[in-house]
Amino acid sequence: MEFSIFFIIGTFVGSFFNVVIYRLPRDESVIRPRSHCPNCKNSIPFYRNIPIISFIIQLGKCAHCKKRISIQYPAVELINGLLWGWAFSSLPFSEAITVSLFCSILVSISWIDSRIYMIPLDLIIVGAIIIILSIIFGVLSLDQALLGIVAGVFFPGLMMGLTWLVTRRQGMGFGDLQLGLILGAWLGPILMILTLFLASLLGLIAWILISIFKGIDRNRPLPFAPYLTFSAISIFIVSNYSTTLIDHLIMV
Ligand SMILES: [Zn+2]
C-alpha cells in the first residue's frame, strides 16, 4: 500500500524533474511557463500531463502536432516512482524523505550529464543541502559523512590526476568530483569505495561496447554521472538488505 501511494507521488515528482532536466541547462525558469510541447509550444493541460499514463494513451506523441515525445519523460517518471515507492516502504519515514529526494536529484544530474556532458552546480547544491539537513536531523552521521567525502573526492581526484599524467587528458570532470562529494557524504566511506569500483567497471564495459559498435574514438566523451548514480543507488539499496555483507567487508 505504502509502495503504491509513494510510487504515484514519485512519478509526479519525476514529472517535475523532467521539466528541470529540460530547462535547467537552457537557463529557463523551472516554474514558469506551464508545461508545453517543445515543438509546437502548445501548453499541456493537467489531464494530458499524467505521469506515464498520458505518454501511453498518446502513443508517445504530442496531442497537437503529433511530434514524438522523448522516452526521457516516462522513463524519468517511472524511475522516480520506483525509487520513492521503495524508499517509503523500506526506510524509516525521515530517512525516506531525504533519500527519495536525494535520489531524484541524482537521477536528474545523470540525465543531464548523459545528454550534454555537464553536471549542473545548482543540483549539486540542492543535494548538499539535503545532506546537511540529514546530518542535522540525525539521519546521517557526521563522522561517516566526512570520511565518505574523503573517499568520494580523493579517489576520483587521484584517478583524474593519474589519467592526466599518463594521457594528458582530463578524463573525468570537476563535476564528477562534486558528485563524488555529495555521494560520499550520503554513503559513507565503505559504500562509496564500492560505488567507485562498480561505476568504473560499468563505465569500462560501456566504453568497450560503444567502441565495438562505433569504433574506437579516444576523444569520445563518456559521461560518468550515470554510472556513479546507478552504482550508488544500487549499492545503497543492497546494503539495506544485506548488512551482513557490508559488516563482513568492514571487518576485512
Ligand atoms: Zn506539440
User: Secondary-structure element order, as H and E?
Assistant: HHHHHHHHH
Number of distinct helices? 9
Mean pLDDT: 91
Low-confidence stretches: none
Oligomeric state of the chains? single chain
Spatial separation of the terminal alpha carbons: 39 Å
The main β sheet shows up as: none
Hetero groups bound?
Answer: zinc ion
Tell how many strands the DSSP assignment holds. 0
What portion of residues belong to β-strands? under 5%
Radius of gyration, taken over Cα atoms and rounded to an integer in Å: 19 Å
Judged by helices, strands and strand pairing, the structural class is: mainly alpha
Shape label: globular
Considering DSSP H and I runs of 4 or more, what fraction of the residues is helical?
over 70%
Quick take:
This protein is mainly α and about 250 residues long. It has helices spanning about 1-25, 55, 70-90, 95-115, 120-135, 140-165, 175-215, 225-240, 245-250.
